[in-house]
Write a structure and sequence with these properties.
Layout lengths: L13 H18 L1 E5 H20 L2 H11 L2 H14 L8 E8 L6 E7 L9 H24 L4
Antiparallel strand pairs: 1-3, 2-3
């Protein structure tokens, strides 16, 4: 009998599975769209939607529950400020799973999971900021080195 056995196991222990889905949920809320295997996307949907439901409640206990699962203060603050406001009128159905063919190496079914009404510019935003800051720092260092070396 399958009593109290609702979730997929993915051939890993419970702690590893919990860490996997916490990290995937963090990535989903950070980038608002990720590509993973279809079974993982279907399972991730339940975790992401429960976190958004916590954010819509907005009380301290919900914030603590979300923080204990996600373990990332930046993601939790985005969840409770930006995403809670975005989905305050929507009653569930915050994510969308789109089948995306099969992976080349092992022919695993792939899917794109994204937030409904997502911000298109959110994907890769932190990386773009980091690269821009690195380029500015390199340009400043090059300018400083050019001014320090005497012209011959």
């Amino acid at each position: 009998m399958k009593h109290n056995d609702a979730h997929r196991r993915f051939n890993m222990p419970k702690s590893q599975r919990r860490a996997l889905f916490a990290n995937l949920t963090n990535s989903l809320f950070t980038h608002e769209q990720i590509t993973i295997t279809l079974p993982r996307a279907k399972e991730l949907r339940t975790f992401a939607e429960s976190m958004i439901t916590y954010a819509k409640k907005g009380d301290l206990n919900s914030r603590r529950l979300a923080l204990s699962f996600l373990r990332d203060k930046e993601v939790v603050s985005k969840l409770f400020s930006v995403l809670a406001e975005r989905y305050k009128e929507r009653n569930g159905g915050y994510t969308r799973v789109i089948k995306a063919g099969y992976r080349f190496g092992d022919c695993a079914p792939m899917a794109v999971i994204e937030l409904v009404d997502r911000d298109v510019n959110a994907k890769g935003f932190k990386d773009l900021e980091r690269v821009k800051a690195e380029r500015e720092a390199a340009a400043a260092a090059a300018a400083q080195n050019a001014s320090e070396t005497p012209a011959a």
